[in-house]
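Next comes a concrete protein, fold included:
___
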Amino acid sequence: RALEYYQRSLTIKMATIGLKHPLTAGTLDAIGQVYYRKGQYDSALFYYQQSLALTRAILGDNHPDTAITLHNMRLAYDASKGKSGRALE
């Protein structure tokens, strides 16, 4: 059910505050986390990549939210490859 609620939240945010907003980027990251927990790493990476692009554009490369999404991407990437501790290439 979490995914359903996050998708609804994303729809509302897109309609009200738009794509280029930190809350929208955060929701994309949250959707990625749901997919990650479900073991659907490719879907998780898809949403993390969208979140990262927005976060970098809105908040910059050195913002903590950017670092969090990069960390989440690394975890999903490693899990998708059956590895741990490997950085994104």
Q: What stands out?
A: The helical segments are 2-16, 22-37, 41-59, 64-81. The mean pLDDT is 93.
